[in-house]
Write a sequence for this structure.
């Protein structure tokens, strides 16, 4: 088994490509080891000292580390944990617990929210998945779109620029009711 790695715009995050399907659908975000209980893969990766976050996509695993450790020191152990997991035959996730993404939204703005979600799914999410992350809809209130950033996007130094200059401009261009985009922590 050969696992490739790719850097991401977030220097604290590295994308691991095992060359096989990680999740059939959706994504799974584990911002700490405390919430990794239903993922044998995430638990193995969190066992590596210095790992602070694990994000699972369809064909990649994004790992975030603390600033106090260097990639040269933790990357071999993470590669070993990923390889060990896929060779073990264990499930990536036990039961349900990952998300297809967006929060539900009912109410008078449901048509606008539908347009927002469609633009996120077709224009934004595929691009940020290339960088090892995901951005999902969290809410819409009085012209403000609230988005949840995951994986490499969470804590990325360029995430504010991505939100304001990229996503906000895109949504405002296609949906005049959108006036601002803000990140949320879930």
């Amino acid at each position: 088994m050969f696992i490739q790695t790719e850097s991401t715009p977030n220097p604290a995050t590295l994308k691991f490509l095992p060359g096989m399907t990680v999740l059939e659908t959706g994504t799974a975000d584990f911002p700490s080891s405390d919430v990794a209980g239903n993922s044998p893969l995430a638990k193995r990766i969190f066992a590596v000292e210095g790992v602070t976050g694990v994000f699972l996509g369809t064909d990649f695993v994004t790992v975030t580390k603390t600033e106090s450790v260097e990639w040269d020191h933790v990357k071999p152990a993470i590669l070993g944990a990923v390889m060990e997991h896929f060779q073990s035959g264990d499930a990536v996730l036990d039961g349900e617990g990952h998300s297809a993404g967006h929060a539900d939204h009912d109410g008078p703005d449901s048509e606008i929210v539908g347009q927002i979600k469609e633009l996120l799914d077709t224009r934004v999410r595929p691009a940020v998945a290339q960088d090892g992350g995901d951005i999902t809809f969290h809410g819409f209130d009085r012209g403000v779109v609230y988005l949840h950033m995951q994986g490499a996007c969470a804590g990325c130094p360029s995430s504010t620029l991505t939100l304001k200059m990229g996503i906000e401009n895109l949504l405002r261009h296609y949906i005049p009711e959108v006036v601002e985009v803000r990140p949320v922590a879930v």
In short: The beta strands are 4-7, 13-17, 28-30, 51-56, 61-65, 133-141, 144-151, 180-184. The mean pLDDT is 88. The radius of gyration is 17 Å.
